[in-house]
Amino acid sequence: MAPNLAESQHAQIRDMILSKCPPAEIANVVGCRSAVQLWNDFATIDWKINSSKNRLDYIAAAHLMRNIIPSISTCQQKYYLKPPDLSMSNIFIDDDFNITCIIDWTSCFTVPLPTLLITPSFPHPRDDVDADMASIFKESVIGHSSQMKDVLEDPSSWDLAQKSRLFMQLADLDGYEDYHNFIELYTSVHTDLSGTDVRGLFDALRVNDTFTGQAKWGLTEDLPASEIQRKEKDYFTHSRPSAEDLARKLSDKAGKEAGFVADCNVWKSAVFELAKAPKPVAT
Q1: Is the pTM of this model over 0.85?
Q2: Are residues 121 and 199 in the same domain?
Q3: Domain total for the chain?
Q4: CA–CA gap between residue 166 and residue 171 (Å, rounded)
Q5: How many CB atoms sit inside 10 A of residue 169's CB?
């Protein structure tokens, strides 16, 4: 069965680090359904989701994340109780928008201050943090915490909170922007690096014998070429005529450029190719 993003998005995210699938900018241009179809077509070529290269990239990301843990750690001894799911459905308010109750404390945990200061994402915890919401949240926390005002007014506390948010989303395997979150996190710690530099780190790890030797535990053998070709044929038999050609062009571009499978540059190419393609005739 071909990978179906609409039905198994979380399973795919657990299999590899990737950008939003499909990226929001592509969905805005071609429509959500077409964008999902593009992703499924692209992922089918070479059966990318479970390929050894994809898994090696994922292990490389975990390796690089481990190396930046000391940079986002804190020496504070005090910990605070944090609800595990601070979403809109778990917050009760009155007619004047005052919070009256927060429910669903199952699996709550204690965290250091930077983690407590992570701005909640609304309406769902996986959503992006709105800049206005982040500002309101920060002002509210400072205004209601007079005993910790000096610490809370320190910009470094909020900078560490942002890094903690990115790290936790990646470590929880529960985000929609894993690729971009990883780049943002890594470059926020290593400020002398750009996104291109970070992608180069993955290339270096792929040819590092020590790393690849240690990573063997997480790799599986790729399917035989004949089996992959059979799966591709079964999938594209029921697709529109140009789908396979476009998917192979995207795959070729992804193979030539360093980065994750779902690099946004690849999807920009998809929009360009779609713009050139003739529109289907209505029947």
Answers
A1: no
A2: yes
A3: 2
A4: 9
A5: 21
